[in-house]
Automatic annotation (TrEMBL), chain A:
Residues 196-207 have a biased composition (Acidic residues). One of its GO terms (cellular component) is endoplasmic reticulum. Keywords: Endoplasmic reticulum, Glycoprotein, Glycosidase, Hydrolase, Signal. Pfam families: Gal_mutarotas_2 (PF13802), Glyco_hydro_31_2nd (PF01055), Glyco_hydro_31_3rd (PF21365). The lineage of its organism: Eukaryota, Viridiplantae, Streptophyta, Embryophyta, Tracheophyta. Residues 703-790 form the Glycosyl hydrolase family 31 C-terminal domain. It comes from the Eukaryota. Its main location: endoplasmic reticulum. Residues 192-217 are annotated as: Disordered. It is found in: Endoplasmic reticulum. This is Probable glucan 1,3-alpha-glucosidase. Belongs to the glycosyl hydrolase 31 family. Residues 367-695 form the Glycoside hydrolase family 31 TIM barrel domain. It comes from Salix udensis.
TrEMBL record, chain B:
This is Glucosidase 2 subunit beta. Residues 151-208 form a coiled coil. It comes from Salix udensis. Residues 1-25 form the signal peptide. Residues 224-234 have a biased composition (Low complexity).
Length: 932, 482
């Protein structure tokens, strides 16, 4: 595609949308954000810091950073630590021991994000070596990082980089190679210092900062940090969600980029009708960037910092005017700016994209293991009106034989937007309602937001006020903002005591009307404050321990999510996996539940952008994510709705949702044909639940996302680098969305050298080629990779709960050597017994005409056991020439029939495929089946 | 004769065989198959209904799906499209989606859908059947009475329509004669007026001549008066400052439509409400509308008065008399025409196949739900009222669903969407009353209305048949109806 076309398209889209909805002027751009404006104006080579007194302390390399000029308030302390698996950590903070002028307070270090286990992976540095790297005038200090990698601290000019010994000491990733590093130090406001605001003040020496009608007092003056990071031999960079934009991040500065182009902003905001193709900050922030290049090399950089961040991806020629010597090695340079906090940065060496994700999730934690029901289909709407409405919708699903697992209640279910309460007229018998759903194996989710109605008769508010649990405004009074209930206050979730208190509110006694089948949805936790600056909390609001809101803003929603999730954990006696959906997120959110991409719109562009958005979340640790199927705002045409279901059925988190002003759009409301198409789309997800659950377990143990970019599975296939309209589900399935109205054709690139099998017809397609397919209205294109085995459950039920004892189908897609393999993970689907070994984990291997089931679970002597009565009812062999009539099962020594059968019982098309009929082997046993 | 004996023997054998097989098939019925379909499964090789495949009897209900359409697995959950038939003796038989077979949930009241031993389903058909039959009987009773009332209404409507038509005819005749009268009076009046005009002109001339004697002063007066007129004309626009003021008012206070609203300078609470309103669409200032009494009135004076009224007016001269007569007659004529128009309009309406909805025309129905009063006036409009605030839910559009529901559309506009609409679903009931108004989608309202007009004879027969079949099932089950 020509690069101009999408730009033009997005411009068109921007102009047409801006008029209607998005309120750009209510949000700050970089130019209106003093730290961003000033940082961006810095020239390469400006940094004057050099490390002194380099030594080893507590197993870390430490040094003092001093300016060559006399312009420093106090010294900075640098430390470098090395962790297992090729992780380098860099910290830079103020020297709090410096007496005059002493720092007025400690800068905020984000607690409770790095998992405790990570510290135990620290490698104590034994020694430092100093060398002068080829031709340079200044010496460098070198430490061992991991097999094949060194971390290097160059002294002058100050630079930190990792070099790859195997590739002749080439740089892999570096910081401050362009000397853009800057660290504004805390100051104490002098009595007479003027607070006058002057527009366009380049120095940012002002204390107060104004935006629209809001004033930020900035009691410590400007305190931003900025630096450049370079990724070498990279073709593109990706990550830093959340933005509604492409997977490979486009440059924001450089040749060919518009002058007023904005950096990627990381600032959690509740954006009304957000735009497609925009670097604008949305609901969540993860400052992790992953680079990828030829030969499949990846590296990662993560900055643990919860203040507003702005990140420039610097395109070719960005530093053309600087006159600084060009870096010899090809690289993608990026520029990171944050309003506050410290430098606490992690470098990941890869070498593959999967390794980077594993390394990152070893720092911030692996995704939690969800309950089985929560990875099935969710039905949501703002709002299901009352108990009768709930009963009717529930009954209609049964009537139309469409499975679903969870029914959701949005804000209108409460008594006047007081969370943990029920509207007495609309929901007089909430327990009975949940029990009725539970009798069909279904669950319910209610919404609980962080804004608490300021109503003295509301006990939660009364208690929080008395205990002093609210965030304070800059004058230390309880912050009072406007949200759904009207005047509201916000709980200070960074305080562990308040989180624990909050968690107790989810007990069955405290949450009156809740039952064990009820789970929770956290919305508006950016936090959304309707009358605050940029629809959020003022930056000078104060948290526990004097933390300014500006320092932790991006983590506020994370702590709220954490508190809710831990509350549910407590409610279930520690043995019921919580399900909490959150809109705001931060590194580590993957440990507490799922997220979704917020208030999207019912148009084709938002359907399209949902894929790179979810892929980016997966790359940055948040595997369990999805977009609202159908689009939140507006009314989708039936065709769009059907296409959205067909694609959304493959999202890790699969939920339909709609704004209250939209027309009803439950699956059966668009005529018989559309009902059938939506039913089939949802049923495909239910069939694939065993495969998805196995992938969620893989994510839980390794951090690898369920939904992956093609280049994660085919890292050295360059054609995949720019592809973000197709994706992999695990390593075995490839899905291509259809993003246009009345599409006649769909172009699908199938990577690799092996064949691909259409999951409905079994038709084969060659790898390494772009195929132009006829678009079918029945489904979006989806393919099984040759050499894989996918477990399915073909019997369809009301909900996943009734599928527990149903038999399995194995679909074996043979590769060119007539071999394939795959895995299946099963546990009880809800408890933590699996941590004690109560699970079944099998590997299926097909080779030499024989299928073998191998145990992967540790043959532990543990007390916990999980058993399953499930059998395998059908084994399908794709790519096996028809002919055999029988197969022999060992050790039972029993013959079963081989015949031709359909690949899919429903929605399947195409010719019959070789099928082993009723082998009836136990899924938990060791066995082999030989084709005779 | 040997042949004959053989033939007899042979036919005897066949008879015996068929007897055996028929008893066999009725006693061991195939799980999940309807009685009508049992014959389909008698052969050794059976075809899938969609013709895709064949299967043998051993594959019937063997818990493996051979026919994707479910033909071979009527009694298991193996096929996605299957239907499971439960006999439900004592109650009504039901066909379930096969996804509900052995799923741990009792769906058939006889428990036949759960036979794998995972769950025990007690047979609840008798109790459930009794309740259902009881309800059904009650419903039939209502229908019976309703059908009678409906017949009466249809009869009344017929008469009323005949009366309306008669009145219309009469009115049209009156109109015709009155038109003649008006025409006559008009001519007379014009004649008189012509005479009067002539007299006036003569008088004027006389006065002019008298004035001419006094000379110029009059001219001056004339000039100045005309200049005043001119002035006031040229000053026109500035004489209407209210228009400008209004524009200004709209610019600052009205809801802008171009989206370039300014939120700067709002009070903090106003700002909160304002931002919230983007999601909710609620207006910060409610648009209030006074409820005005129904303007429609019947026009009781639809009869032409015999006389034109009081004649002994003291100073009545001929001219005034004629003028008054003329005015009275035109008023009467327009009254009649108005009545004709309203009657014609009424008779144009779709009152149903038997004109059964005729009496809905002049009626409104109300119901109070929470704080709202809903008012439905068939053939006219529907509204939701809260105190003095009135929201139009829609104007009459038509009947839908073969006179099963009434549709009102194009009501007051909705934020971010089209106008409001209301669908009134009709139910059989002894009184005509509005119940249960709901808003399942934003601004799409649904109400229920019970009325004897919807008690249809055909439906009554259907219900009676259903009850009859339940009774016979129950008799088969060996229970006595109490």
């Amino acid at each position: 595609m020509k690069p101009l076309a999408p730009l033009l398209l997005s411009l068109l889209f921007l102009t047409s949308q801006t008029v209607l909805s998005f309120k750009r002027e209510e949000f700050r751009n970089c130019h209106q954000t003093p730290f961003c404006k000033r940082s961006r104006a810095r020239s390469p080579g400006a940094c004057t810091l050099t490390p002194h007194s380099i030594s080893i302390s507590n197993g870390d390399l430490t040094a003092t950073l001093l300016s060559k000029n006399d312009d420093q308030i106090r010294p900075l302390i640098l430390s470098l630590s090395v962790y297992q698996d090729g992780i380098l950590r860099l910290k830079i903070d103020e020297d709090y021991d410096h007496p005059d002028p002493a720092a007025p307070k400690r800068r905020f270090q984000v607690p409770d994000v790095i998992v405790p286990e990570f510290e135990s992976k620290k490698l104590w540095l034994p020694r430092l070596s100093t060398e002068t790297v080829g031709g340079e005038s200044s010496p460098s200090t070198v430490v061992y990082l991991s097999d094949g990698y060194d971390a290097v601290l160059r002294h002058d000019p100050f630079e930190i980089y990792i070099r790859d010994k195997k590739s002749g000491n080439q740089k892999l990733i570096s910081l401050n190679s362009h000397q853009l590093f800057d660290f504004e130090q805390l100051r104490v406001k002098q009595e007479k210092q003027d607070s006058d605001y002057t527009e366009d003040s380049g120095s940012d020496d002002n204390w107060e900062e104004r935006f629209r009608s809001h004033t930020d007092k900035r009691p410590y003056g400007p305190q931003s940090i900025s630096f450049d990071v370079s990724f070498y031999n990279a073709e593109f960079v990706s990550g830093i969600p959340e933005h509604a934009t492409s997977l490979a991040l486009k440059p924001t500065r450089g040749l060919g980029v518009e002058k007023d182009s904005e950096p990627y902003r990381l600032f959690n905001l509740d954006v009304f009708e957000y735009l497609n193709e925009s670097p604008f900050g949305l609901y969540g922030s993860i400052p992790l960037m992953i680079s990828h290049g030829k030969e499949g090399r990846s590296a990662g950089f993560f900055w643990l910092n919860a203040a507003e961040m702005q990140i420039d991806v610097l395109g070719d020629g960005w530093d053309a005017e600087s006159g600084i010597e060009l870096v010899k090695q090809k690289s993608i340079d990026t520029f990171w700016m944050s309003e506050a906090g410290i430098v606490d940065a992690f470098f990941f060496v890869g070498p593959g994209p999967k390794d980077v994700v594993k390394q990152y999730t070893s720092v911030t934690g692996r995704p939690s293991m969800p309950q089985l029901f929560s990875i099935a289909y969710h039905q949501c709407r703002w709002n299901y009106r009352d108990e009768e409405d709930v009963a009717n919708v529930d009954a209609k699903f049964d009537e139309h034989d469409i499975p679903y697992d969870v029914l959701w209640l949005d804000i209108e279910h409460t008594d006047g937007k007081r969370y943990f309460t029920w509207d007495p007229v609309l929901f007089p018998n909430p327990e009975e309602m949940q029990k009725k759903l539970a009798a069909k194996g279904r669950h319910m989710v209610t919404i609980v937001d962080p804004h608490i109605k300021r109503d003295d008769s509301f006990s939660l508010h009364k208690e929080a006020t008395e205990k002093g649990y609210y965030v304070k405004d800059s004058s230390e009074k309880d912050f009072d903002g406007w949200c759904w209930p009207g005047s509201s206050s916000y709980l200070d979730m960074v305080n562990p005591e308040i989180r624990s208190w909050w968690g107790d509110k989810f007990s069955y006694e405290n949450y009156v009307g809740s039952t064990p089948s009820l789970y929770i949805w956290n919305d508006m936790n950016e936090p959304s404050v309707f009358n605050g600056p940029e629809v959020t909390m003022p930056r000078d609001a104060l948290h526990h321990g004097g933390i300014e809101h500006r320092e932790l803003h991006n983590a506020y929603g994370y702590y709220f999510h954490m508190a809710t999730s831990n509350g549910l954990l407590k409610r279930g006696g520690g043995n019921d996996r919580p399900f909490v959906l959150s809109r705001a997120f931060f590194p580590g959110s993957q440990r507490y539940g799922s997220v979704w991409t917020g208030d999207n719109t019912a148009d084709w562009d938002h359907l399209r952008v949902s894929v790179p958005m979810i892929l980016t979340l997966g790359l940055t640790g948040i595997s369990f994510s999805g977009a609202d199927v159908g689009g939140f705002f507006g009314n989708p045409e039936p065709e769009l709705l059907v296409r959205w279901y067909q694609l959304g059925a493959f999202y890790p988190f699969f939920r339909a949702h709609a704004h209250q002003d939209t027309k009803r759009r439950e699956p059966w409301l668009f005529g018989e044909k559309n009902t059938r198409l939506i039913r089939e789309a949802i049923r495909v997800r239910y069939m694939l639940l065993p495969y998805y659950y196995t992938l969620f377990r893989e994510a839980n143990t390794t951090g690898l996302p369920v939904m992956r970019p093609l280049w994660m599975e085919f890292p050295s296939d360059e054609t995949t680098f720019s592809n973000d309209e197709a994706f992999m589900v695990g390593s075995s399935l490839l899905v291509q969305g259809i993003y246009t109205e009345r599409a006649k054709h769909a172009s699908v690139y199938l990577p690799g050298k092996e064949l691909w099998y259409d999951i409905r017809t079994g038709a084969t397609y060659k790898g390494g080629k772009t195929h132009k397919l006829v678009a079918s209205e029945e489904s979006v294109p989806a393919f099984q990779r040759a050499g894989t085995i996918i477990p399915r459950k073909d019997r369809l039920r009301r909900s996943s709960t009734q599928m527990v004892n149903d038999p399995y189908t194995l679909v074996i897609a043979l590769n060119s050597s007539q071999a394939a393999e795959g895995e299946l993970y099963i546990d009880d689907g809800k408890s933590y017994e699996f941590l004690q070994g109560a699970f079944i984990h099998r590997r299926f291997v097909f080779a030499n005409g024989k299928l073998t089931s191998i145990n992967l679970a540790p043959s532990s002597t543990s007390k916990s056991q999980f058993s399953s009565k499930c059998i395998i009812e059908r084994i399908i062999l794709l790519g096996y020439s028809p002919g055999p009539k029988n197969a022999l099962i060992e050790p039972a020594n029993q013959e079963v029939q081989v015949e031709l059968g359909p690949l899919m019982l429903e929605g399947g098309r195409g010719s019959s495929v070789v099928t082993i009929r009723k082998p009836a082997v136990q899924v938990s046993d060791d066995w082999t089946i030989k084709i005779l | 004769m040997e042949v004959n004996v053989l033939f007899l023997l042979f036919s005897l054998l066949i008879t015996i065989f068929s007897l055996i097989s028929s008893t066999k098939s009725s006693s061991i019925s195939i799980l999940g198959v309807t009685p009508q379909d049992e014959n389909y499964y008698q052969t050794e090789t059976i075809k899938c209904r969609n013709g895709s495949k064949k299967f043998n009897r051993a594959q019937l209900n063997d818990d493996f799906c051979d026919c994707p359409d479910g033909t071979d697995e009527p009694g298991t959950s193996a096929c996605p499209h299957g239907k499971f038939y439960c006999v439900n003796v004592g109650h009504l038989p039901v066909s379930l989606h096969s996804s509900k077979v052995n799923d741990g949930i009792c769906d058939c009241c006889d428990g036949s859908d759960e036979y794998d031993g995972e769950v025990k389903c007690p047979n609840a058909c008798w109790e459930a059947g009794k309740v259902t039959r009881h309800k059904l009987k009650k419903k039939i009773d209502i229908y019976k009475e309703g059908v009678t009332i409906r017949k009466r209404e249809v009869e009344r409507a017929k008469q009323a329509i005949a009366k309306d038509k008669e009145e219309l005819l009469k009115l049209k005749n009156n109109e015709k004669s009155l038109k003649g009268l008006v025409k006559k009076l008009k001519a007379h009046k014009e004649q008189i007026e012509k005479v009067e005009e002539k007299e006036r002109l003569v008088k004027e001339k006389e006065e002019m001549m008298k004035m001419a004697v006094d000379g110029k002063s009059d001219d001056e007066q004339k000039e100045s008066s005309s200049s005043t007129t001119l002035d006031s004309e040229s000053n026109g626009p500035s004489d209407e400052p209210s228009v400008d003021q209004k524009d200004e008012y709209e610019n600052t206070e009205g809801m802008p439509t171009d989206g370039s609203e300014s939120t700067e300078g709002l009070l903090r609470e106003e700002l909160g409400r304002h931002v919230a309103s983007r999601w909710t669409g609620e207006k910060t200032e409610h648009q209030v509308e006074e409820v005005s009494p129904n303007k429609y009135n019947h026009g009781d004076n639809n009869e032409i008065p015999e006389s034109t009224g009081d004649k002994d007016h003291e100073n009545s001269d001929d001219a005034n008399h004629v003028r008054k007569d003329y005015e009275d007659s035109t008023t009467r004529l327009s009254d009649i025409q108005e009545r004709i128009a309203s009657l014609t309009e009424k008779l144009k309406q779709d009152f149903g196949m038997e004109k059964e909805f005729y009496f809905f025309y002049d009626q409104c129905f109300e119901t109070k739900q929470d704080k709202y009063v809903y008012k439905v006036c068939p053939y006219k409009d529907a509204s939701q009222e809260e105190g003095y605030r009135k929201t139009r839910l829609g104007q009459w559009e038509k009947f839908e669903n073969s006179y099963g529901s009434m549709l009102f559309s194009n009501g007051d506009g909705c934020w971010n969407g089209p106008g409001r609409s209301l669908k009134v679903k009709l139910r059989c009931g002894l009184k005509t009353e509005l119940t249960d108004v709901n808003e399942p989608s934003r601004c799409e309202y649904v109400a229920l209305m019970s009325t004897p007009i919807h008690c249809l004879e055909g439906k009554l027969e259907e219900l009676e048949r259903k009850l009859e079949s339940m009774r016979s099932e129950q008799l088969q089950g060996g229970h006595d109806e109490l």
